[in-house]
Amino acid sequence: MATTLATATEKKAHTSAEEKPERKLQRTRVDDKFKIFCGTANEALCDEVCAFLGLTRGQAQVTRFADGEAYVQIQENVRGADVFVLQPTSRPVDEHLMELLLMIDALKRASARRITAVIPYYGYGRQDRKDKPRAPISAKLVADLLSTAGAHRALLIDPHAPQIQGFFNIPVDHLFASPVLVDHFRRLSLPNLTVVSPDAGGVERARFFAKKMDSALAIVDKRRVEMNVAEIMHVIGDVKGRTCLVIDDLIDTAGTLVKTASALMENGASAVYACCSHPVFSGAAIENIASSCITQVIVTNTIPLTEAAAREPKIKVLSIAGLIGRAIQSIHEETSVSKLFV
Q1: b/e burial code for range 72-81 (CB count within 10 A of at least 16 → b)
Q2: Which of 36, 88, 117, 120 is the one with CA 20 to 30 A from 142?
Q3: Does the annotation count 212 as an active-site position?
Q4: Do the Cβ atoms of 195 and 217 come closer than 8 Å?
Q5: Catalytic residue among 12, 222, 240, 259
Q6: What is the CA radius of gyration of the chain?
């Protein structure tokens, strides 16, 4: 039986001079009733969040039997504690989801006072409606599983569709990665910036970003001529001679992103940048990005990058540990989370 031991670690506080005062790491605190645990999906992000809050990561053993069956044991006292479990349900999605459910159940049976599931990337979020006959609404099913396991509340970052919050029967805090992304692009000071939504469904997200950046907005309309025939891209808005920033919640195979960038360049754009909250990067995503006309792709660390993605010079990662840390602290102290986005 192979064992992965999530030992408690402490990291030194590294703070960039460009970071805002409220994002500075805090001194180590001693609070037996405030604990953060994680599975194996993104231990590095959990350690960053713990360092930001001045906490040490909770000790938990996550192990698998020879047949792949998961087993979890919490290795410290959590009775009466306010506990946060950080685990994105990224690839392999089902394994990481099962770890999260088992950890929540273990904490419930260990008499934790409150359990908050912190899910930087909500897997199955794209299956948020019944778009074909006899298809499941998987995003709703996962929400029910989390509640049944024993989660008292959830903290999500940029779920694929806002209505996913309504699938839960427990309180949900919805965080946006946009403050981190906006700060980065403000420092870049890109000339003649136009924020672009790659499809009609992402217009609200792009409009919010454009307002924060005080920039123009454009939309790409995709139309498929027939089955198995590539889409035709229609650019709505003037992008000639402008720097375009394509914004989406996630990048999967990057096929649509690359086609969108090509359409923008064909319409006279001077350069194309892209950003997203969740770097899923499946299939030939890295090859597609590397061979595209895109100047740079900015992502956050909700999902750890693959080795190929980490080596690609066009891809830059921003940390959202400070954002998650401040949200966790607000939930623990029963103060407003929405103030983080004012």
Answers
A1: bebeeebeeb
A2: 36
A3: no
A4: yes
A5: 222
A6: 21
